[in-house]
Design a protein that fits this description.
about 240 residues; alpha/beta; Rossmann fold; Arc Repressor Mutant, subunit A; 5-stranded antiparallel sheet
Length: about 240
């Protein structure tokens, strides 16, 4: 028997929750929903959704706070919903570990496409982990099973799912220039939008994790007018 992938919708708008439950269920998913962070926490005690759709404006803890809480224990993909046209909400969400965002009002078909794209990329990541346990580059070692970064000085860092997929993309293409559309497609399943700053935010966050955010970037270099390149030697260990 093939079990449906479970999605968790967190939104205080009953109409939106009902719409998504009906639409996504017809698309083959099992959908559970919560009105706020308290209900979300109760559901996560007994369920392990494969993706979370999280509204920013919620009663009690807002979506930003809940995203941080989720990221302390889980790398589950997160799509944030925002009714604010200000791009700052989207940037903050990505900085806190969200994988993608979509503005309200939204087309359910577009949301479904983004859900499927993120789930495909999560599966690709899981399959890659079966072949290689460790990837060494620079002063770091990436554990593909735990999605942890280990520095040669002993420091260990947890990566969000979006940071992990971005790092994996660079490690699969060392010393190659990756343009913004390639990065966006690999991490979100779509091309970058005009004037979208999400890719820059993701790159900046990964550089910070790699201690590579100074004026002279050593690992991830900006190739002006073309994209980004990870300059390093990469080796794999079982």
């Amino acid at each position: 028997m093939v079990f449906a992938k479970q999605l968790l919708v967190v939104d205080d708008d009953l109409e939106i929750r009902s719409l998504l439950e009906q639409y996504l269920s017809k698309s083959g998913f099992e959908v559970i929903s919560a009105n706020d962070g308290i209900e979300m926490a109760k559901l996560l005690e007994t369920n392990k959704p494969e993706l979370i759709i999280l509204d920013i404006m919620l009663p009690g803890d807002d979506g930003f706070t809940l995203c941080q809480k989720i990221r302390r224990t889980s790398n589950v993909p997160i799509i944030m919903l925002t009714a604010n046209s200000d791009e700052m909400d989207r940037i903050v969400g990505l900085e806190l570990g969200a994988d993608d965002y979509i503005g309200k009002p939204f087309n359910p078909r577009e949301l479904l496409a983004r859900i499927k794209a993120l789930l495909r990329r999560s599966q690709v990541t899981a399959n890659a982990q079966q072949n290689t346990r460790y990837i060494r580059f620079g002063q770091w070692r990436l554990d593909t099973q735990t999605q942890q970064l280990e520095h040669e000085d002993g420091e260990t860092l947890e990566l969000s799912s979006s940071d992990y997929r971005l790092l994996q993309l660079f490690l699969q293409h060392p010393n190659e220039t990756l343009d913004r559309d390639t990065i966006s497609d690999a991490t979100r399943g779509r091309e970058s939008l005009p004037m979208e700053r999400g890719i820059d935010v993701q790159i900046s966050r990964l550089r910070q994790r790699l201690k590579d955010d100074g004026s002279q970037a050593r690992l991830i270099r900006t190739i002006r007018g073309s994209g980004y390149m990870m300059v390093t030697q990469v080796s794999h260990e079982v």
